[in-house]
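Progress narrative, Year 2. Work on Cell division ATP-binding protein FtsE from Rhizobium metallidurans advanced from sequence curation to structure prediction during this period.
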Amino acid sequence: MVAFERAGKRYGPHGEGGFTAVENVDLTVARGAITGIIGRSGAGKSTLIRMVNGLESATSGRVLVDGVDVGALSEEGLRGLRRQVGMIFQHFNLLSSRTAFDNVALPLEIAGVDKKTIRAKVGPLLDLVGLGDKQGNYPSELSGGQKQRVGIARALATDPKLLLSDEATSALDPETTQSILELLKRINAELGLTVLLITHEMEVVKTIASHVAVIDAGRIVEAGRTFDVYTNPKHQTTRTLLASALKLPEWLRSGIKAQPSVGDRALVRLVFFGETAFKPLTGRLVAELGSDVNILAGAIEEIGGEPFGSLVVSYSADPDVIARADRFYSETGLKTEVLGYVA
Ligand SMILES: Nc1ncnc2c1ncn2[C@@H]1O[C@H](COP(=O)(O)OP(=O)(O)OP(=O)(O)O)[C@@H](O)[C@H]1O
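Result:
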């Protein structure tokens, strides 16, 4: 549905004074799927997603939506594209002088739709997002979650086939975030809408995205099924993003170092799924390393209905202990990653 072909974006002049925000991105977004793009602040996420609806133009390569090169569209072509591509934003971007109803009606008014059709369309959309009783309320009278629901209804007004989500839950508390993600999931399933979202939170990706791409300094460093990337991350950026999503106590998280000093302990995430899920490997690891293994956190989670377990343990970073542990992992096929080192 969306294809980035060696797509890049450079702000300002070429050479000195310019800045390359996105570089050589090759990425395909499957029709009907929910795809997440995750990266740290400044990684280029907003630039990348805005290239899909022409809010930013590629300065190299191409971005195709349903085979159409966005960069080659005329102003009128772009307006047509934006009717097919809805967008929601971190700060909702509602007009404060308009009611919920009138905010949702706005794209239809702009498209020249008659009043009767607008009335027939907006009510059911507000019902769909659970705001049937708030049609006459102004944004200032709505909670953050309700404002985002209005934003979602507005994005759906022109019956788009693709929804872009720019950090749509970043300004919301965890509970409201979950309810908005549930709503997006339902819309994806019920309307068959393709969703492309950007976020800096692994939890968001894990909750709703079937596929994920990790962006770092303007480049996609890893992409694939969310389950695969989450259970077997290959790139250091992905590992760092995952580590920050683990529910480790603050005292432990803040003490993590990239390199060990003498006497430090390795902090290791063990991932259990598929064949390794049902083997009593933790006991064997403890037997292998002596009683030196500390279990610090553990959870059974699932992505897209596929369960997996993760356990965070620490043990001596002494090279001999590390070598024994690594031998054990390669013999058993247990997936692991070193999160860092702690004193
Ligand atoms: N109009 C612009 N002119 C020059 N540089 C820009 C412009 N817009 C963004 N940038 C730079 O491009 C880089 C990527 O910005 P972008 O907003 O795409 O990142 P992001 O991953 O969405 O970050 P955040 O999550 O903080 O919004 C940043 O270093 C930013 O300063």
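The chain has two domains: 2-233, 246-342. The first strand starts at residue 2 and ends at 11.
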